[in-house]
Amino acid sequence: MTDYRNYIAWRAAQELENGDIVNLGIGIPVLVADYIPSDRQVFLQSENGILGVGPTPPPERSDPDLINASKLPITELPGASYFDSALSFAMMRGGHVDKTVIGALQVSERGDIANWAVPGKDVLGVGGAMDLIVGARTVIVATTHLTPDGKPKLLPSCTYPLTAKEEVDILVTEFAVFRFVDSKMVLEEMVDELTLDQLREMTPAHFSVSDSFRIAKRPKNPRIGA
């Protein structure tokens, strides 16, 4: 299976706006830090206590004491600040985070999200997912369209334990971009490698097509968008 994670991260980064305070979740979302458009100043917050996260450093410049909530090496931008996790969660719960980019195991056609537990498997903990999804003003899900074994993630209803109900605003996969309007799933964009019928075949969730629907060409090099 082709690895589209960098494309998903790049496309999710296009949804960030100048001045946004953004928290990046574990998995694909952490890659978003490397794809923020150069003409936008975005302030990345990590729940372990930093505001002003920069892109991933090269291996020779990584500092084991400078990591994000995923325990991955980061850089810091000029003006970055540090604080304890209690204040970090207060920012998230208090509505001070503009957007969160978060991964998902399942998303329903109403915007429900399940991303913290798989029935029958060990649960490591929910982390800050519930706090972020409810506290952030905009929730962007960045995930593959299908599981590694080809099962759909976008469903009429989630079958895994829910993280939150009807909280997803934007959903970005390697094939499409959806928005949720009044708890209804709307297709905004689809890559030119698929037909609409093919997309519907791999998407059990019901969705309508936006009046502003567009076909997008996947960039060969997401880092520069070309």
TrEMBL record:
MF terms (GO), sorted A to Z: CoA-transferase activity
Protein family per UniProt: Belongs to the 3-oxoacid CoA-transferase subunit B family.
Keyword Membrane among record annotations: no
Protein name stated in the entry: Acetate CoA-transferase
Lineage of source species: Bacteria, Bacillati, Bacillota, Bacilli, Bacillales
InterPro entries in alphabetical order: 3-oxoacid_CoA-transf_B, CoA_trans_fam_I, CoA_transf_AS, NagB/RpiA_transferase-like
Keywords noted in UniProt: Transferase
Signal peptide: none
A Pfam family it matches: CoA_trans
